[in-house]
Target: Precorrin-3 methylase
Amino acid sequence: MGKLYVVGIGPGGLQDMTLKARRALEESEVIVGYTKYIKMVEELLKGKEVFETGMKKEVDRCKRALELSKDKVVSIISTGDSGIYGMAGLILEMKKEEIVEIIPGVTSSIAAAALLGSPLMHDNCSISLSDLMTPYDLIKKRVLLAAEGDFVISFYNPRSKGRPYYLRECINIIRKYRKNNTPVGIVKNAMREGEEIIISTLKDFDETKVDMMSMVIIGNSNTFMKDNIMITPRGYKL
Amino acid sequence: MGKLYVVGIGPGGLQDMTLKARRALEESEVIVGYTKYIKMVEELLKGKEVFETGMKKEVDRCKRALELSKDKVVSIISTGDSGIYGMAGLILEMKKEEIVEIIPGVTSSIAAAALLGSPLMHDNCSISLSDLMTPYDLIKKRVLLAAEGDFVISFYNPRSKGRPYYLRECINIIRKYRKNNTPVGIVKNAMREGEEIIISTLKDFDETKVDMMSMVIIGNSNTFMKDNIMITPRGYKL
Model:
């Protein structure tokens, strides 16, 4: 009898994974994942079967992972948390009799926030700017309502070659609701090779510094900078 | 020279902590935290100094942690992630010359989601229903805008004795925008002693099942139930 672990490996480094995630990978006979993410857990792959595919092959990967899990212990990995824009949803949609366990991880916005300071300290939302499976009009509507509600906003998949100007348009929507000096944090490759942290404001925001591997976090009306650290106060009286 | 780690220990079990968080606790000479959370890491406290305080003593705890970190290695702990309604913001606001490192963890909504299935698979927001530091009118405004934007909604601090009816009022706001059969997941004590998982709908939601230790997750217009599992589809074509 096999089993399928759906594992969020966290931002990328082995030390940013939970112990439960690490044990699931160690216990697994097969590891399934996107090629780039498989590399991140290379140290744990010795003696294991690996099934890796390129981008946009999510359905193939999930199908294979479920098949293999009928008589083997298998882990399918996502970076961050598998339940936030990761593989958990697809696996659960496709699953029949297989035994599946979701193992949570540190999602990308939380990893980026820890590097920027504490921008997510109050009510916040995550919006993916990828329109592959979500109409762009709905994405813009969500950005507008989040801006109006003074939520701290984290943009996942903020910019790709196919939609270079979405991010700028979404930032422009937010500009109508927040001050020019609202802090904006950009983190590329949070807690992995090539990490880069950029602090900006709504006024000076330069979308060309953002790529698909970045997380963009826009502060709320109370967010402020202190010694290059981005802080959203919870509201404690000091 | 000392150092202060601001550690998110995850939902509660030692195996749900990242390796980096565990190493920070092991390295620390002093652990600071809310009494209830200190108990969760009891196994790691041998030979260490402990400074614990009760609820609503956050400022005292942070002050003490910062003082001690001038010449000792100190960890101040939050459950979940310290950057989401945790101690990171207050520490960074109060910090002067002290060396501070934020170590991210698995936040409560992500842990609860993993137990429910994959409810957070698409754009989502977190709202705290505690009005200790946020006007209730602003909380309700955020709930309304999140409902209108079809965000999956996670309620932190959903219900306490001082405000027993806020949760019902907020659910009523959402009912105006979503179908009666929209799935609602309640998780009490996610991944710790006393764990309880309740699946309901907007129509049948019973707020008396919810306490301060619960997480409430309301699906978006596409969220569905399958074999008692709550799934928000990302949108892949199957």
About this structure: Residues 189 and 195 of chain A are 5 Å apart (CA to CA). The two ends of chain A are 57 Å apart (CA to CA). Chain A has a mean pLDDT of 96. Chain A touches chain B through 71 residues (CB under 8 Å).
